[in-house]
Specification:
The protein is of the alpha/beta class and about 500 residues long. It has 17 helices and 13 strands. The strands form three sheets. An eight-stranded parallel β-barrel has the order 1-2-3-4-5-7-10-11, surrounded by five helices. It has a three-stranded mixed β-sheet with strand order 6-8-9. Strand 12 and strand 13 (about 470-475) form a beta hairpin. The chain is globular. About 50% of the residues are buried. The structure holds 1-deoxynojirimycin. 1-deoxynojirimycin binds near residues 43, 190 and 331.
Length: about 500
């Protein structure tokens, strides 16, 4: 029975997709809509131990013997952007982007993680980068934390120890103070779900800790309070003078109900709440989604815990966290199907606690990344759901992209971008979603975490075998450049 339903469903999806593929949206992107590209410090900078930088969790993990990373790759040199940032800015200029999203390496600024000692050379690097961007008319969008916490803080428990909250806020204060005159767009965190669930639950990202059903919730509880405190710091002490804006980037796939049954529709909503709502609900409404609170409390009791494994906010904390965003950054790449189940897995873990099933059909269009299936219509559904669920926020797509093996003739990437952008434009036009920016991941091929250099997302190719790390524009870079000039996905747009 299941396979018949599967088949029928697949048919509906193929049909749906064919419709979307056939015609790209022909409305020009609005004049004030911004286009950019993104990278992150550990993935591109290299210079892992130069000019006083301290060790971070990715240095620590990539230097383990045996290495847990594909091909024993490391970010020791990566794209060498620490030395080649002027070339990076020249590429950005050539693309014609409105903004560049990059992240700051905490241990380059504060080698031990603590704010007692600032590494001036590290700070100078980012000042130079920002200056170069500004000189070329490119707006910096700075991610304060993109997964690379200093190892000395990790040795104390990292994101599971609440002392990190004040350390993070001290670090953010230095950035606001030193860079805030030139940086007007800030993101506190990138994809906290990956930091917490993969970092402290399932051991798929540094610091590779296995504590499912416990570690990810402790991490998130601290991270959300750190986010709120940094946002309030900016709001109270820097905003008036610097006139900037500050948000957070949260990632989620779109979760599509497997069937029209009420149970599957509810299951998909539950999954969205366990992924996107986990962070967005506290930030917009002050507390974890009720389905998380209920499920985890019930399962914790069944498992013999005296209290829920999901920590609780005090009333004061709820009021403090609520409303701490100027816009929502959204990273979206793909879609999963979701169904309910009568036999939920009783073990501990974020996915298990959701008590639903999710998967991607094998025959969906694939990429070089196992988790990344090409499903353009998920883009529109996701942003429309965000609009309806979170009170119509301003949305910046802070990442969206496609992986392959690094070919220069990357037609697959162009086709992905065309269809996802068309779906996004549909959401703006037909559903009135307030999307203000779009960011392609990534400016160039870079260190793809546990996958090392085996999965490539760049608009520019980087020669990782050459000490000079030469960059070469791929076909998609030329395509993106043209899009940024015309702001239009088809031959001729209507306004
Ligand atoms: C999400 C992350 O923010 C980024 O670091 C990563 O490389 C891309 N997605 C692709 O997996």
């Amino acid at each position: 029975m299941r396979s018949v339903i599967h088949f029928v469903f697949f048919f509906i999806i193929v049909f749906n997709e064919a419709q979307v593929n056939g015609t790209l949206n022909n409305k020009r992107f609005p004049d004030d809509f911004k286009f950019g590209v993104a990278t992150a410090s550990y993935q591109v900078e290299g210079a892992w131990n130069e000019d006083g930088k301290g060790e971070n969790v990715w240095d620590q993990v990539t230097h383990r013997v045996p290495s847990p990373i594909v091909n024993n790759d490391t970010g020791d040199v990566a794209c060498d952007s620490y030395h080649k940032y002027k070339e990076d800015v020249a590429m950005l200029k050539d693309l014609g982007v409105d903004f560049y999203r990059f992240s700051i390496s905490w241990s380059r600024i504060l080698p031990t993680g603590f704010a007692n000692e600032i590494n001036e050379a590290g700070l100078q690097y980012y000042k130079n980068l920002v200056k170069e961007l500004r000189a070329n008319g490119i707006e910096p969008l700075v991610t304060i934390f993109h997964w690379d916490q200093p190892q000395p803080l990790e040795d104390l428990g990292g994101w599971t120890n609440d002392i990190i909250i004040d350390q993070f806020v001290d670090y953010a204060r230095i950035l606001f103070r030193e860079l805030g005159n030139e940086v007007k767009y800030w993101l506190t965190f990138n994809e906290p779900k990956q930091t917490c669930n993969q970092g402290y639950g399932t051991a798929q990202k540094a610091p590779l800790i296995t504590s499912p059903g416990m570690g990810e919730y402790l991490c998130t509880h601290n991270l959300l309070r750190a986010h709120a405190k940094a946002w309030r710091l900016y709001d109270e002490e820097f905003r008036q003078e610097q006139q900037g804006t500050i948000g957070i980037t949260i990632d989620t796939p779109w979760f599509e109900p497997f069937s029209n049954s009420t149970a599957d529709i509810e299951a998909a909503e539950t999954k969205l709440q366990f992924t996107f709502g986990w962070y967005t609900n506290p930030i917009v409404y002050g507390d974890y989604p009720s389905v998380m609170q209920t499920n985890i409390a019930r399962r914790s009791a069944q498992q013999g815990f005296k209290e829920s494994r999901l920590p609780q906010f005090t009333e004061e904390e709820k009021a403090y966290i609520k409303g701490t965003y100027d816009f929502l950054g959204v990273n979206v790449y793909t879609t999963f199907l979701v169904s309910s189940t009568d036999e939920p897995d009783p073990s501990m873990g974020l996915d298990e606690d959701s008590e639903v099933l999710d998967w991607q059909p094998d025959d969906w269009e694939s990429t070089a990344s196992s988790w990344l299936k090409v499903v353009p219509w998920g883009m529109r559904k996701l942003v429309t759901w965000i609009k309806n669920t979170y009170d119509n926020p301003k949305i910046m797509i802070t990442e969206n992209g496609y992986s392959d093996n690094g070919t220069l003739e990357d037609d697959g990437r162009i086709s992905y971008y065309e269809r996802y952008l068309s779906s996004l434009r549909d959401a703006m036009e037909l559903d009135g979603v307030d999307v203000i920016a779009y960011t392609a991941w990534s400016l160039m091929d870079n260190f793809e975490w546990m996958q090392g250099y085996s999965e490539k997302f760049g608009l520019y190719h980087v020669d990782f075998n050459s000490p000079n790390r030469e960059r070469t524009a791929k076909k998609s870079a030329l395509w993106y450049k043209n899009l940024l000039e015309t702001r239009c996905l088809v031959e001729e747009c209507v306004d």
